[in-house]
Amino acid sequence: MVDENKKKNKREQWKKKVMDNLKREAVKNIIARTGDIARLDAKVNNTYTVYIKDGRMIKQPTNGKCVIINGKIQA
After folding, report:
1. What is the pTM assigned to this prediction?
2. In whole angstroms, how far apart are CA 34 and each of 3, 14, 20?
3. Residues 6 or more apart from 16 whose CB is under 8 A from it?
4. Is residue 6 classed as helix, strand or coil in its secondary structure?
């Protein structure tokens, strides 16, 4: 009986880890898709995208040349 409870508990923990990983991957995919949509939207409307990379704010026009805005972002 104790072994069955341990197995069930381990199985439940494993399921929880798998579900947490799936949720994390789904969020990563949503974030990546949002960036792709922003770039496409900027291209259609002939504007630019702004994002943070390595602590710096980057402005990227549709021609692809990146411009750093205001130096370093403080967290």
Report:
1. 0.56
2. 46, 30, 21
3. none
4. helix
